[in-house]
Predict the 3D structure of the following.
Amino acid sequence: MQKFSGFELLRRALGGHQGWQPQWRNPEPKAEYDVIIVGAGGHGLATAYYLAKEHGITNVAVIERGWLGGGNTGRNTTIVRSNYLFDESAALYDHAMKLWEGLSQDLNYNVMYSARGVLMLAHNIHDVQSFKRHVHANRLNGVDNEWLTAEQCKEFCPPLNIGPGMRYPILGGALQRRGGTARHDAVAWGYARGADSRGVDIIQNCEVTGIRRGADGEVQGVETSRGFIRAPKVGVVAAGHSSVVMNMAGVRMPLESYPLQALVSEPVKPAFPCVVMSNTIHAYISQSDKGEMVIGAGTDAYTSYSQRGALHVTTHTLDAICELVPQFRRLRMLRNWGGIVDVTPDRSPIIAKTPVKGLYVNCGWGTGGFKATPGSGHVFAHTIARDEPHAINAPFSMERFRDGFLIDEAAAAAVAH
Ligand code: FAD
Ligand code: PYC
């Protein structure tokens, strides 16, 4: 009988739960697949999972130039909510929210979705008007959201400073109680394990360097750092670099890429009960299950592909956090990092077919795609499998920028950009 150390026995007993990275195969790429997904972030892996699970398409490769979940999926501040303004967005983000609610059971993997509430603070009369408009629009769409006075905000989140002497006083806030957090890397690992066990090949350390097209312009496959891989369908899900990859097929995207950064404090005992966001003062905060305060900033003011942001953006955010929650002045920072987000002109994503036969794209999530991961993968898989959009993602086409059907969610993005 094979003998295992106590550590290995514990790891196997936990079966990949909470804190333990599950095992999946590490296959060599085959010469040909039915579908290639470029990018093993949460959205790419979720797409592969639903292609296999819902559409029976398992001859799929997810090709990743780095390591699985090492892009924005593993770099975000894990906030999940669906309080967007327009009907199209409510349908998309609430589709994701409903999937979050059953995701741990579906994947048989604990993604640690925690509906602890997302409170968006208003600091001036424009914030108040804008958030109340969001509350009303959300409720019309069956999405929960409610207005709280400053005192009710304090009751919901006791560490908040609602004193009158603040530079940006809290005038109230919009609370989505179903909003909260989920563990970002667990989401990537859970989808990876689910896809892998259904036969999907996840190929890491393999960069896509070109997209080959045939005589009729159709997609034939991808050039990679490990050779050419043939496939009649290619889905590009390469956040931050979507325009670079799409350019390989000759498609110019309406995207700009910016650094977005975040940081965590040293871990402390439970001290912050919910998620608080403030676009006006450029800060958002929650406490992870490990005890760290997870704090994020706005995007840098200039375009860049650097996975680090400007120092003054962080110091500005920390000033804001220390004014909102003065006792956190004594916390020390543990680490900080950045990701690259790709932003569309209307701050809504593109999940669509493209003018190139067999080429599909899922991008432009800007500062807010983590929350959409399950819904995004679900409708993108439908789009690729059926070669037509799902009703939910039909409005999120590329043509909307040509035809003027914008879905302007700049205010609901709730992150300065
Ligand atoms: P990614 O996880 O970035 O995956 C794309 C993958 O494509 C990467 O792994 C990359 O290596 C790969 N790739 C790129 N080029 C190639 C190539 N040529 N060949 C092969 N592979 C390639 N959203 C929220 O909803 N809530 C939040 O709280 C939140 N906070 C954020 C905080 C920060 C600091 C950042 C940076 C983002 C935040 N976001 C948040 C946004 C969210 O993280 C992203 O929208 C989401 O994770 C995008 O997922 P993805 O799978 O599309 O991209
Ligand atoms: O979209 O909720 C969000 C978000 C929070 C931090 C970055 N994006």
Notes: Residues 38-44, 63-66, 70-73, 75-79, 207-208, 237-241, 245, 260-262, 296, 339, 341, 365, 367-371 surround flavin-adenine dinucleotide (ligand 1) (CB under 6 Å). Residues 350 and 398 are 6 Å apart (CA to CA). The two ends are 58 Å apart (CA to CA).
